[in-house]
Amino acid sequence: xxxxxxxxxxxxxxxxxxxxxxxxxxxxxxxxxxxxxxxxxxxxxxxxxxxxxxxxxxxxxxxxxxxxxxxxxxxxxxxxxxxxxxxxxxxxxxxxxxxxxxxxxxxxxxxxxxxxxxxxxxxxxxxxxxxxxxxxxxxxxxxxxxxxxxxxxxxxxxxxxxxxxxxxxxxxxxxxxxxxxxxxxxxxxxxxxxxxxxxxxxxxxxxxxxxxxxxxxxxxxxxxxxxxxxxxxxxxxxxxxxxxxxxxxxxxxxxxxxxxxxxxxxxxxxxxxxxxxxxxxxxxxxxxxxxxxxxxxxxxxxxxxxxxxxxxxxxxxxxxxxxxxxxxxxxxxxxxxxxxxxxxxxxxxxxxxxxxxxxxxxxxxxxxxxxxxxxxxxxxxxxxxxxxxxxx
Amino acid sequence: xxxxxxxxxxxxxxxxxxxxxxxxxxxxxxxxxxxxxxxxxxxxxxxxxxxxxxxxxxxxxxxxxxxxxxxxxxxxxxxxxxxxxxxxxxxxxxxxxxxxxxxxxxxxxxxxxxxxxxxxxxxxxxxxxxxxxxxxxxxxxxxxxxxxxxxxxxxxxx
Lengths: 392, 158
Hints:
Chain A has 14 helices and 16 strands. Chain A has 392 residues and is an alpha+beta fold. Chain A starts with a helix and ends with a strand. Chain B contains 6 helices and 6 strands; from the N terminus they run βαββαβααβαβα. Chain B has helices at residues 16-25, 70-73, 88-92, 94-104, 122-126, 145-157; strands at residues 2-10, 38-47, 50-59, 78-84, 109-115, 134-136. The longest helix of chain B has 13 residues, at 145-157.
């Protein structure tokens, strides 16, 4: 008891600690002079401590323990009281009394508070920036020595990675786990540093752009454009296809023929013209005529290979391009098609025949010269009585 | 008079201090000032035929780096667990706060406040999903704040 008094006197003189003694009924039996700075001037001996220190409410069982066990003590840290921060120590004083020491920690707590405020504000800012980054396209940041430093949520999700750590942990060859189809990050940087470039990953197409962040980091942005590419493909198909028959249009056919001639490929061009088709339209009407054209297109298509190009020139005229210069074989093929049409019964129309003009490419041929020869051959087939194949 | 200790728990910057300030003083300040340690406020309210003094502990917000010390949780009869209804991560952390409170106070009651509801659009409010014990509150506008504390007091005392 004497020792405690000495210690108390010593520390009270440094203005750091204040004390209160309470009895079993929570009444104040003694207190140091400057306790009022925390509780106000009204605090007196005989008052209920819980009126001034409501922090004790809920701790009654612990106070019982402190009264009974001289080794028992209890501390409540960083409690705000009347513009001060204090630590409250409850200690055994006697079997009837508990010593409450109030430790003024205001100075250090205010420093901590300043740091905590700064830290929390930064955390909020960080969370906001992270949300912004995660809402962007796939982002990847790589250090100058080609280690992955950061990948946003969309990038991780695309490559089925659970966390950034999972990506970063694989330091030795972390590039390969992403299945990016390039040999190195340096190569990717060189590829996409000037402008956005297309990059195919699996079945998806991305626009990738590389940007240098300071001198230390490379930022890669991947914008997925697969859907756009699909839409473009659909649009291209619509532009290049004849809506009635589904065959290619003449413009597309000419383009492919020109490409073949430019690369000196030997090709054979066939022009087909359904004989006397005008009478079909006149007799049965245009709807029946259209149906016959579709049926004819399907019939011929069924006899061609995938790499043969079949197009509708217009009206009842059609074009076939064979990537082959073996004329006899092609003539044989066309002859069999002619026979098939000749024996086919067209829905609502009955019998139809078709005339063919065939021309095989020569050196220095152009689209025009080749078409001209095939067209002349067709003209001859028509002149000689129709329903025949003539080679020009 | 019956005295009961209740806690306000939740992530930092969800509006715990603002809810207390609205409840005790009916005031609000937009500026974010973080709480360190604990601040105690008192409020008397009638619950049925009983007169109750709530000892309200405004505990500093949890951060990813720092958990709430257990000494603050001991002896509480109830808790208001607070989330910011605009920040997913604070709502995801509700369960952790509830578990921690119940681990220390198995008989303790709790309610959940989804605060800052004034920032939601009417459509967002209409489709807002929350747990059954939840109340959408706005400390800024004072919406459902008294109801929140009153509900908890009734849960504890009745």
